[in-house]
């Protein structure tokens, strides 16, 4: 049986690189499809400021994918972001690290924010730093069977300096990249026999807690955090 074929309109936004291990320098990125097309491009060259580089650069391209005809599971489609540092006034550069993202995980998603640790090119002789690359990915099906399955997410949890707890590497939103969590629905007060409305219990969940998908806090932990 022939594999199912798909085409996706992909919007990839290169957001920022944090925890950069030096205080100055000029960084840029090369982005390219390793599978599903020949798209390749470069970001702008931006200076390091307070150990952070912000690009806010958006790339739009068409990505081709295939899927198993029996299961409908999408095959891997790797998109690589290579981070580079200018040398000799821009005449040369050094490769700091890269991040490979499987676009099949994001197929059909409205908007997904992902943070990932850079992988080193020369891991045998060089100790890789803990720089964190933040990107936003949105994919819209252009052609192919709308019934398909995405592979399990490879996102993991990491601890980011300045945050009180670990953050999920993946945060999904309904079409926006800046969602800070979903507001809990309001509960209507119940009317007692006396005619006095009973006040609903206060919902202690905050946007920060909603953001931690797959992680729940018990009441004792929340109360301890409030005292800090």
Automatic annotation (TrEMBL):
Transmembrane segments: none annotated. Residues 152-169, 216-228 have a biased composition (Polar residues). The gene is F102A. Residues 152-228 are annotated as: Disordered. It comes from Neovison vison. Belongs to the EEIG family. PANTHER family: EARLY ESTROGEN-INDUCED GENE 1 PROTEIN, FAMILY WITH SEQUENCE SIMILARITY 102. This is Protein FAM102A. Coiled coil: none annotated. Residues 1-141 form the C2 NT-type domain.
